[in-house]
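Entry type: protein chain
Record version: 2
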Amino acid sequence: MIIKSPTATLRLLSQKISLRATIIDMQKRLNYSLLLAAVIVVFSSANVSSIELDDSRIGAISQNCSSIIAQLKTVQRLDAKERVNLGVQYESVLSMLMTNLNLRLIKNNLANPTLAEQQSEFSEKRDQFKQHYIEYSQSLDTLISMDCREKPVAFYRYLEGVRERRDRVADDVKELNSMILKHKETVLAIREELAQ
C-alpha cells in the first residue's frame, strides 16, 4: 500500500492503534469467558457410570423418591443459572468480540479468512449448544415429573438418558472453550503482525 500524505499515514497508524486496542479488549473478555466456562465444565462433567439395578437399588429409588426429586430440582436450578451465564458469555464473545473484530479488520482492508471461519464455526457450535441444552432441560423436566416411587426402573432408565444429554451439553461447552482459545491464538498472531 502506498501512502501519499502525512494525513493518510496518521489515519493508518490511528486505525492500527485502534485495532490493537480492540484486540487487547477482546483478550480481556476472552480470559474472563474462559474462566467462567472452565468452572461450568468442571461442574458439568461429573460422569456417573451406568449400574445394574437389583432389588435393593430399585427399593432405594422407591424409598428415597422425594429426596431424589429434590436433588434433581437443585441440579435443574443450578444448570439453568449456569446455562444463562454461559449463553450471555458466548453471545458476548460472538457479537461483541469476534464479529466486531472481523468487521473492523474488513473496514481496514485487513480481512482474515481464518477469523471469519472461526466466527462461523463458533456461531454454529453455540447454536448446537443451545439446542442440546433445550433437549437436556426438557428431558430433565420429564424425569422430575415421573413417579419414581411407583416406576423406579423406568425412572432410572430415563435418568440414564438425561445423563447422556447432559454430557452432550458438557462436550459442547468444552468445544466452545477450545474454539475461544484457538480464536485467541489467532488474534495474538495478528496482533504480532500488526506490531511489526
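Comment: Residues 62 and 139 are 20 Å apart (CA to CA).
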